[in-house]
Amino acid sequence: MKIICIGRNYTKHIEELQNEKPSEPVIFLKPDTAILPKNFPFFIPEFSNDIHHEVEILVKINRVGKHIEPKFAHKYYDEIGLGIDFTARDVQATLKEKGLPWEKAKAFDGSAVIGEFLPKSQFNSLENLTFELTNNGKPVQIGNTSHMLWKIDELISYVSQYFTLKIGDIIFTGTPEGVERVNPDDILEGFLEGHKLFRIQVK
Ligand code: MG
Predict the structure, then answer these.
(1) How far is the centre of ligand 1, averaged over its atoms, from the C-alpha of 62 (Å)?
(2) Where in the numbering of this chain does the Fumarylacetoacetase-like C-terminal domain appear (predicted)?
């Protein structure tokens, strides 16, 4: 399986990092080795002093597809989840400055938290889902899918122009504002419409 991540999909997050608003979705990949095993703590890697949490809505692909039209994209997933795209912001800043790829900052071991999934059929509209990340019980990121620059179906269509989507692939759909550094002893919990989908201890 592969993990396809979208960057810069929420205006206020683009502003907080002083990035340019993209004219097309920003895409990067994480390998399957990036997945943090279930119930494992997240260990801050030695190569960074500034690991940020980025809570994101996840989509799990359930059919093989390529060149998917937006109007058919809804047939390619039936579960929605929540996860964290851990980012070594200091490493990323150096890479961005040099115009280099982001993998060292984004695709390292443990950088992909994949929480539980819920059937999309249980939600009235995927375009109005509230999600939240708390750190030691305090809300740090609150997002709503209505603020996405590109909606889930548009993202599926876009990425499938480049990559064949396969069963089990996961799309990280971008983070809202509120990204912050994590520290040892943080407890990160993710909620989608009030359902707790993950709990991660930082070490
Ligand atoms: Mg992200």
Answers:
(1) 22
(2) 2-186
